[in-house]
Amino acid sequence: MTIWNLGSINADMVYDLPHLPAPGETLAAHGLDRFLGGKGANMSVAAARAGSRVSHIGAVGHDGRWAKDRLTEYGVDTRYISEVDLPTGHAIIAVDAEGENLIILYPGANHALDVSHLGQALSSASTGDLLILQNETNAQVEAAQFGRKLGLTVCYAAAPFQAQAVQAVLPYLDFLILNEIEAEQLRQETGMGAADLPVRHVIVTLGAKGARYLQQGNDPVEFSAHKVQAVDTTGAGDTFTGYVLAGMDRGMPMEQAILQANRAAALMVTRHGTADVIPDLREVRDATFD
What we know:
This protein is an alpha/beta fold. The protein has helices spanning 39-49, 65-73, 115-122, 140-150, 163-169, 180-190, 236-249, 254-268, 281-286; strands spanning 2-6, 10-16, 31-37, 53-61, 77-84, 89-95, 101-106, 130-134, 153-157, 175-179, 201-205, 211-215, 221-223. Helix 7 runs antiparallel to helix 8 (254-268). It catalyses: D-ribose + ATP = D-ribose 5-phosphate + ADP + H(+). Its cofactor is Mg(2+).
């Protein structure tokens, strides 16, 4: 099967800071790195490194050909990434000494995808394939509708979180992943807790506490996170999601897919960077944790 990812593609400019800046504060960075990023690109790379066939649907500017080449290098099918007359999306990421981060995001080309291009890409999908969306592109609702009509397993990573964006795609979803704060915000907006949502599979990520899996008609299942020394949490959630999707794609029971994704996310937070440093399946399987 194939994982189809309507996803963002960014240049991530990562600044190493002694602490996250307060309003009005000027800080000198200890270092600067540029990585391939964007929630979409991160998830595509993670799923590909976890052993799945991944086709990325997205857009870059004329300045973003390097990002397309990098995705190809990492095993992602990039035939459906178009080039548009807007700058490639980019993120300014500040990371402090404890690994916490703040992110300023410019969407750029990620919000310029032609819906007809989306339809052309998904016309190559097969029943049973997976489709993943995040809230960093345009055409999310159209993609979810296409996916449902084509018999794909439609998945949504609810970040950056907007309750209206989640509600717009909710009728078409088979799988939803969001963090604890986002789940509470969605409950306040809709009156539905994560267990009440009309979605077959829901995962609520809990950061250092792990994750909670809710399947319709079953009791919640809790998963503990591995204890590691975090140096950078950027991209850890995307790595987790990509590995869960790859597990689903390969027919793993959801519990097994989450356990493997937990290992991948634990490794990810011990590394500086985003898509370029996502661990591959061998690293995840060989890793040892206290």
